[in-house]
Amino acid sequence: MATGLVAWPAAGRRRRRLTHEALTGYGLVSPSLFLLLVLLAYPFALAVWISLTDRVLGEPGRFVGLGNFGKLVGDPLFRQTVWNSFVYTLSTVCLKLALGLVLALLLNQEFPFRNGVRAILLLPWIVPTSLSVLTWLWMFDSLFSVINWVLLGLGVISRKIPWLGDPVWAMASVCIVNVWRGLPFFAVSLLAGLMAIPRHLYESADVDGAPVLRQFWHITLPLLQPVIAVVVLFSTIWTFADFQIVYILTHGGPVNATQIFATMAYDVALVAGRIGEGSAIALFLFPFLLIVILLLLRRLRAEEGT
Amino acid sequence: MRRRRGRALRRLVGLYLPLAGFLLFALFPFYWMALSSFKSNPELYNVRANRLWIADPTLDHFRDLFAKTAVLQWLANSFFVAFLTTAISLVLGIMAGYALARLRFPGAQAFGIGTFITYLVPTTLLFIPLARVVQGLGLANSIWSLVATYPTFLIPFCTWMLLAYFKSIPQEMEECALIDGCGYLGAMVRIVLPMAIPGITFSAMFSFTLSWNEFVYALTFISATTHKTMSVAVPTELIRGDAYFWGELMAASLLGSVPVALLYAFFMDYFVSGLTAGALKG
Q1: What's the CATH code, domain B69-277?
Q2: Å from B116 to nearest chain A CA?
């Protein structure tokens, strides 16, 4: 009875509020929307347009259709860049996932100063990458490399490793630094996933006498899988479009052995001044990006549904 | 007895040794950065000396930096840009995040997905056309170009973080406020924001860091020495041709890293809980 009495005015207020609600909503999102349209959607459209022209710095370009893209596909340097980008992304994401999982499992155990250790391990991720990579550049120095000095001293190696001077070692070096910087993100995110797994699952597995490795395989991994998927997708985007590590450590060298999408786009567009072609290189990132975005959206939708 | 020793051994091999390995990997570069910045040049380039220690610490590199370079200006630029863009993005992110979390209006979902996608767009995809837009706006070669463009990745980040956070706050109290005659904005400012302070702190800190660390846009838009931010000035201004002055470079890197490290030292609790709670739900 009482509910019947208050239901009427409430419904009336609700209907009146709906327009007010919508207006407030639009009012609140419009500044962001405006900014994102002007400085994100418009530049994106512009990027597509520029990539269809043969624009060179300081001169208006001609429309060349898909000419830039066709030229790039046939360009051995660009092919190498694509290959390098895949090597760089796949190897580092796999390494970061494997090491991140190990580190998360370690950090999930009880030990003294646990919170301090968790916080301090984040440092590589929060400190400006350009500055920490300079430190790595110094650590990889051909004459004064401290890593070589230590490894020689310990007798692990008998000759200096040419960290940035040799094509294969240079790729390994940029990968090491990428893993160093990205590992904290994996570890902390996976740790959050681990902490969300209900304890009683392990307790009942203990009662059943399941060995630790089996528990990991049958409880931890399946329950961690959604977090793993999101972390891997995020990291794939960031690594694929990475710029600073390669730009500062090797500039794409030696002989383009570490050239990746972003560094090549920068070199072609801003150093050589071929803006149209550079834009086309940057846009090659987009299809891959789109796939990852769609996968992520599906993932998040699925989680929302459950 | 034997059992206890077996357990200690297992802890050592299964926890402390691998953890020590990870700590060494994560922290050695910072040790090396700090060490090099206090080493004198003769010691820095002496192949015979013990490289992992300093025999004779010196402040020469810092003195040179302050006397001969615009390092104070670069630091000030970084602070200015990071502070301003964080403030802008936080305010706009709170507004958009609240609207998406609480209000129903046509197009809300599309806007939500749109912001999520823009959050994922890497800066390297757009730096070429943005350079032209920045020039068109008359902001080329000035730190205002960064103030204008950094919100494009900070707003989506703040919106998504805060959207998740606002959703986790129970709605009942706001409904009371709404019935008592508070408007939506009143309910947002008086009820929701005070409860969301941990989430807001985390978003602010992280935005500040993203802004402080940004490299691609700052490298592309600005070439004037006095307008550069720390993250770009150090690798571009302090490396002259092929000459690397490592003492100076490491001292400057240390100066550019300490502010964010301090920020995290102060707000560590917010940070670890914020990351472990909301970061991925967004």
Answers
A1: 1.10.3720.10
A2: 9
